[in-house]
Design brief:
Blueprint: E1 5-10, H1 18-33, E2 38-43, H2 45-48, H3 55-72, E3 80-83, H4 89-98, H5 103-107, H6 110-118, H7 125-139, E4 145-148, H8 153-170, E5 178-181, E6 188-189, E7 192-196, H9 212-221, H10 238-250, H11 255-261, H12 267-294, H13 296-324
Parallel strand pairs: 1-2, 2-3, 4-5
Antiparallel strand pairs: 6-7
Helix pairs in contact: 3-12, 4-7, 4-13, 7-8, 9-12, 10-11, 10-12
This protein binds tryptophan.
Length: 329
């Protein structure tokens, strides 16, 4: 029996943080290891060009993200790992889908509006067309499931609309993919629990490459709330609750169990153990990653196999699509 197909990608734009690790990478690995899906995980490098970038940095970021995938446990024997720009069918299908995508829908996309505001001097056509390339990424593989964050749901909805539209115009061609939202908690910034943890706010961000000393320091400096009790209460104690959430996500302690463990103990003790737990999670990952980064030829081999597989599947699909719309004579 063929397993349903699952696909997702990450943009290579720099360091990942603990929230990305729990919500994205670890989630990918769990989905892979559930053995319920045929998984494709790719590097969305074309998507990453929509924001300002540095040429020298870019290729490093791509390699680094592949190492992140592998060190986190994405296994090339189980999943297909590939690079978007090495699989031309993505761009070709995006060009085709462009003609079925209303201008107004793209203009209304929340991500487009937000990024335009953040970067008023680089509102480019790639950014505008981002959701269509994303739809192509997904539809080419007949994916039924797409693990994404909440911020990408609107793009997935567009993907479904495009699939439906194309199918009703040209006959059944695409599968309408469903989002898989991760159960991982949304981590907040360590220096401001009202803001999402984000790499642009370095001080409040735990990067997955942070060394133990840095982790200890960041946790020590993390803001807490008034009172002494270790109690989970996002309304009254948002900063502490965020830390409890991290503790629970990285250990096998439920939130209640964390509270019990630190009953009658102070913030200092809690923070000390929290830092230790983060270190215990990240150090083995960092060790694997360091080793992998020295094995460039091994990484390149895995990628070239993944690219080959992705090219095989997607070029076949593209041919069917071209036939449907009369581009094949
Ligand atoms: N837009 C996604 C993000 O930033 C990355 C992405 C690109 C993606 N293409 C995709 C995710 C296809 C899932 C499927 O998170």
């Amino acid at each position: 029996m063929n397993k349903p197909i699952l696909i997702s990608g990450i943009q290579p734009t720099g360091k990942l943080h603990l929230g990305n690790y729990l919500g994205v990478l670890k989630n990918f690995v769990e989905l892979q290891n559930s053995d319920k899906y045929q998984c494709y995980f790719f590097i969305a490098d074309y998507h990453s060009l929509t924001e300002d970038f540095n040429t020298k940095e870019k290729s490093k970021q791509i390699l680094d993200l592949i190492a992140d995938y592998l060190a986190a446990g994405i296994d090339p024997k189980k999943s297909v790992i590939f690079i978007q720009s090495a699989v031309p069918a993505h761009v070709e299908l995006a060009v085709i889908l462009n003609n079925f995508t209303p201008f107004g829908e793209l203009r209304r996309m929340t991500q487009f509006k937000e990024k335009s505001q953040e970067n008023p001097f680089n509102i480019n056509a790639g950014l505008f067309d981002y959701p269509v390339l994303m739809a192509a990424d997904i539809l080419l593989y007949d994916a039924q499931f797409v693990p994404v964050g909440e911020d990408q749901l609107q793009h997935l909805e567009l993907t479904r609309t495009l699939a439906r539209k194309f199918n009703s115009k040209f006959g059944k061609t695409f599968i309408e993919p469903k989002p898989l939202l991760t159960k991982a908690p949304r981590l907040m910034s360590l220096d401001d629990p009202m803001k999402k943890m984000s790499k642009s706010q370095t001080a409040g961000c735990l990067f997955i490459d942070d060394k133990p000393l840095m982790i200890k320091e960041k946790i020590k400096k993390a803001v807490t709330d008034s009172g002494k009790e270790i109690r989970y209460d996002p309304q009254i104690k948002p900063a502490l609750s965020n830390l409890i959430l991290i503790f629970s996500a990285l250990s096998n302690y439920s939130i209640k169990a964390v509270e019990r463990r630190f009953k009658n103990k102070g913030y200092a003790e809690f923070k000390k153990e929290l830092a230790e737990i983060i270190i215990k999670t990240l150090v083995p990952f960092q060790k694997k990653k360091k080793k992998l980064k020295k094995q460039t030829s091994f990484i390149k081999k895995i990628i070239s196999q993944g690219n080959k597989k992705a090219n095989g599947v997607s070029s076949k699909k593209l041919l069917q699509i071209k036939e449907k719309i009369g581009l094949k004579i």
